[in-house]
Specification:
By secondary structure, this protein is α/β, with parallel strands linked by helices. 19% of the residues lie in helices and 31% in strands. A hairpin with a 5-residue loop joins strand 24 and strand 25. The longest helix has 20 residues. It is elongated. The protein starts with 7 loop residues before the first strand and ends with a strand.
Length: 411
């Protein structure tokens, strides 16, 4: 076991991999699944691929308001056709067309079997009994073929996809009534420290309002996780241990914030090292250098530093990948690039994460500006509320100049 003052120093990527391979012991997603109605699937993670029940669209339909015609009846110049009916969206009519005949048709309406082209009303005189066509259209123009979007039994959403509003619309269009989703992981959240007071309480000298647990619980809820807590665990070891015992019952993961450094009263580190073979590292990052993990009665434990920005960034960098693994969720895409709106310093040899606001300049470029004048200072809790993203500065960079390109990842 590594002592509290002699920690292994890892890169961000090395520590993340250690969590996924050692903390989770190479385990895959939670195996429990459930069937839920589509209306209850928002935010859930698909456990298996979803296939289209039929062709989408199910029938050839019109892409424009206009006239359904036989292209063979059109000439290079002006054509006049007899209008023999009208088909509205939702209609089941299939009027027959003889030579020189057409029907009025609305957007989305089924195209008569005898028609092969749609002439937009804008290219006609809009007649009701007969219509004169003055424009030119190609064969098949403005006609949406059956199965043009997807064919029956095509996969419309893969396993591991999070059901967003956009995915929900796709599933509905494919005729899906219910989906198989992974069970929500149960994650217990605890903030540690005798100095913590519930928001709204009376502060005495040396006390602060608890915010880390509140932030983590809300973030986890947004991710579709079932949250236990947040609770506050004090610095007395026996009570802390008893609190951990309670949190471990029925949980898939415990997240602790605070008490992970090398101080005499860092209770998370002390208890986890003494009782759970806790592993504590220094990670080449700013903020969030001290990190730890353990297993408590077999339940994985993530231990983050207690400064508010450190906690938030630790979760984004290390907590999200663990949650994604439990859910079998697709990993999010990489960082996008933005122009630095102002300059700041970065500690060489450490990957820096800076809460930033995103705007656009006159050239339409994405601009990232630190959300707080102190940049990535780990104790500036209010910097998070105004941030849209994290700017990520690599380990080899010690200065970001205005106009430099920086990677940004959304919060």
């Amino acid at each position: 076991m590594t002592g509290p003052t002699a920690r292994v120093l890892l890169t961000v990527d090395e520590y993340r991999e250690e969590l996924l391979t050692d903390l989770l012991a190479g385990s895959g997603p939670l195996t429990d699944t459930e069937q839920v109605p589509l209306a209850q699937a928002l935010g859930r993670v698909l456990a298996e691929p979803v296939r289209a029940r039929g062709d989408v669209p199910a029938f050839a339909n019109s892409g424009m308001d206009g006239y359904a015609v036989r292209h063979a009846d059109l000439t290079d110049g002006t054509s006049t056709l007899r209008v023999v009916g009208a088909v509205a969206a939702g209609s089941s009519l299939d009027p027959a067309l003889a030579a020189g005949e057409c029907v009025r048709i609305m957007t989305g309406a089924p195209v008569p079997t005898d028609a092969d082209t749609i002439v937009p009303v804008e290219l006609t005189d809009g007649g009701h009994d007969s219509v004169t066509i003055t424009g030119t259209v190609e064969p098949g123009q403005h006609l949406r073929g059956a199965g043009e979007d997807v064919r029956a039994d095509d996969v419309v959403a893969d396993a591991g996809v999070t059901v967003t509003a956009r995915v929900l619309g796709t599933l509905a269009a494919a005729g899906t009534a219910a989906v198989s989703v992974r069970r929500r992981p149960v994650v217990a959240v605890a903030a540690t420290g005798d100095e913590l007071v519930a928001p709204g309480g009376a502060l005495e000298r040396g006390q602060i309002f608890e915010s880390n647990g509140t932030h983590l619980a809300a973030t986890l809820t947004e991710l579709g996780v079932e949250v236990r807590g947040p609770v506050v665990l004090g610095d007395e070891r026996a009570a802390f241990t008893s609190g951990l015992d309670e949190l471990a019952r029925g949980s898939d993961l415990i997240i602790l914030t605070g008490g992970v450094s090398v101080g005499d009263f860092d209770v998370s580190r002390i208890v986890l090292q003494e009782s759970a073979d806790g592993v504590f590292r220094h990670v080449r990052m700013q903020p969030g250098k001290p990190q730890g993990w353990a297993r408590w009665h077999g339940v994985p434990v993530l231990a983050f530093p207690g400064n508010p920005v450190s906690t938030a960034i630790s979760f984004e960098v290390f907590g999200r990948p663990v949650i994604d693994r439990l859910l079998g969720r697709e990993a999010p895409g990489g960082a996008t690039l933005a122009v630095a709106g102002t300059g700041w310093r970065s500690p060489e040899g450490r990957r820096q994460f800076v809460p930033v606001r995103l705007t656009s300049d006159d050239e339409g470029r994405l601009v990232a500006t630190p959300a707080h004048r102190r940049g990535s200072a780990s104790h500036m809790a209010t910097s998070l509320g105004g941030a849209h993203a994290l700017a990520v500065v690599d380990e080899e960079t010690d200065t970001v100049e205005p106009g430099d390109l920086v990677g940004v990842r959304s919060l």
